[in-house]
Sequence to fold (860 residues):
Amino acid sequence: MTDVTTPPTAAGAAAPPGIAARAEDGLRVLPDADPTPDTVEEAAAPSWFARQVTPARLRAFAGSLVPPVLGIGGFIVLWAIFAARIDTSLGTLPGPGEVWDAGVGLWDAFLASREEEQAFYAAQEATNVQRVADGLPPQNFVFNGPVTFVDQIWTSLRTVMLGFAIGTFIAVPIGLLSGLSKTFNGAINPLVQIFRPVSPLAWLPIVTVIISAAITSPDPLLPKAFIISALVVTLCSLWPTLINTSVGASSVPNDLINVADVLRLGWFTRLRKIVLPSALPYIFTGMRLSLGVGWMVLIAAEMLAQNPGLGKFVWDEFQNGSSQSMSRIMFAVIIIGIIGFLLDRMMAMLEGIVSRRWAAA
Amino acid sequence: MNDTPRPVQGPLTPRPQVTRRRFLLGLGAATAGGALLSACGGGGSSSSVAGAGTGATSTPAAAASGAALAVEKPNLTLGFIKLTDMAPLAIALENGYFAEEGLNVTLEAQANWKVLLDGVIGGQLDGAHMLAGQPLAATIGYGTAAPLIAPLSLDLNGNGITVSNEVWDIIRPSLPENADGTPIHPISAEVLRPVIEQFATAGKQFNMGMVFPVSTHNYELRYWLAAGGISPGYYIAGGDAVGEVAAEVPLSVTPPPQMPATMEAGTIDGYCVGEPWNQQAVNLGIGVPIATDQHVQTLNPEKVFGLREDFAAQNPGTTNAMLRAIIKAQQWLDANDNANREAAVQILSQPEYVGADFEVIAASMTGVFTFEQGDTRPAPDFNIFFRDFAGYPFYSDAIWYLTQMRRWGQIDVDQTDEWYVETANNVYRPDLYMAAATSLVDEGVIEDADLPDTDGFRGPQDDFIDGIVFDGSQPNAYLESLPIGLKAGQTVSASGVEG
Fold:
């Protein structure tokens, strides 16, 4: 499956989209999410809510919680034991307790910053009343306090979403075209194969130079670093969507194509009525993989592009090299993981909904 | 750090209350400062720049606030690298000096000097804490080319040269000692000669790190090595940024905060960097500072405040306001024999500024410098922000850096003495510094005696470790007087020095 041109016989057509895509990218998400979409989501939260809560089900649910709780608990215990034994130049590796404290500290800093911000604007408003009374124009300074961890999470989410949205807008049309036209596919396939494995750190200098040259306004609508990070996310994350869309568009059942031929459907109608419905589950699987890649890539991009998100937080703390830095970085790693997981579940839900709808139709 | 005779506060010390001042005090003062904007009418300038106007004439209120010019762009972003000598910027913000001038400044830590320079050139940053060599190199087109200016020197001194424990253990027995058993300073780079030979027989190179090709650290480290008879290598003509031709000790670039980790990893055997990264090596027990830049030269021009020439030309009022705020901060940092340094260290140890532990930053900023555990020496002049005319951008300082660029081949052909002077005049802007500083003298904030009476040249300087006299008006004669370094007519190619 390294070649997009492979016709969707055997593996392509028979395997459910999730497996096809994962085999394609060598990526794995969660083992329980691997079976066909129809069966995946039955075990997961949304459909569980829809059913009757029977004691048997509750027991089964509680039972299913045991292994994860054991896993996490075991990990924390091992972490606590071994962290204390690993000596670094910044002291011993922080254990779970210190990392938790670091998280609490960051939250407190966020609350303190919000208070400062309110005080700042309140004071500014009071000053402006006075200024207007004096016949002066009001001043609208933006609060310039330190960026907090919560702000950084928000910036990272916005960045990855922008990059992901741009990537999807590029990847889906190209993927559809390459699924429909063997010639087009032949033309772009080598490019896809070459650019797909490129690291975000290799894209970054190129994107930086181009964006710096392209945006000359001293006050651009969006900060350059934000756009640079988002574009790096785009460049690295559009490939799974592109490849999956292509596979989806080329694996329309022959019966449907025959029907379209008989009805003499136009190219656009054929795309809308026949191709898109069959390709949609594949597209969503691709998007889910893309978002995962994008989130992973974002942190690296932010580190160097100076986008004030989680990547810059990690880098700044590394540079600080204080006795608190390691626990802050480890807390950030956990948060990055949790957000990545939530993003993946969100996309899995979308994927499941779409699959069920179109499979039924 | 037990033997350091000064009050030690933990890293968990709460944020100092001074933080609040930047808002409250700032807003109060902004009322006065904002009066500057009263004349600006519709203006039609960029909508996101609140209250910005063009060509506002000064109003009575403006005169009362002491500034001669209106602030064209009140919302500013300034860049810095996590080094203690960014202190004037942090203090100007935290003590509300920027706000007093009607400025709303955001300080943004940068990943490395290249990112910082590109940020200033690209306009994301309105100004920055810069290496003295950066505006000079950018203006003459070595590296990224763009006309930049340095209207203010942020500080003097503040760097150290640290070697790894391995190197220190080899040289330590050979060092002459004081009565108390500590090594006599300054230590010449000559002592490295046996280490280099020992490494060579083991098939290893003796590598050192510095922070940027045009950094003060690069030139100081090279000067120190060459003064000890060791060649640090030349830059190949045509913009080479490696500079390892004919090097006995090759120097490589590492961002300051990564220095200790890079040395610990064994990639480099020593480095020259600003604080707190020498103290960090002491604190972590991975290396020993062998010299400070004060040993290399008693008063060593260090960082500058750099910005784009066109920004300063288009925003004279903003530039003036920034300089006034920074000068106030510099004065505060040195006031009453460094009495405010501990408060400054509190601020710098916050994660958004330097972020290292309080003790680590304090170890160099509060008038002492720790060379080894148990060898803490008084160093009141390790960082000078205001005394000794530290803020004034001397042309001769710029020319010294230019001579070093020529000495090591970054300037690949001979230049005339006039060229050196002219370049210094274009980049270093004492006129802007004096305009801001004299307005502060008029207001009684600083004293007349704090400003030098000078034509911008320090005159012959003999405060270097090797005693060679530098006269800023004779750069070519100076270059000929240096034993190691390019001479008139010489160029560097990959195969070596020619001519």
Notes: Residues 1-21, 23-67 of chain B have pLDDT under 50 and may be disordered. Chain B touches chain A through 55 residues (CB under 8 Å). The longest helix of chain B spans residues 316-338.
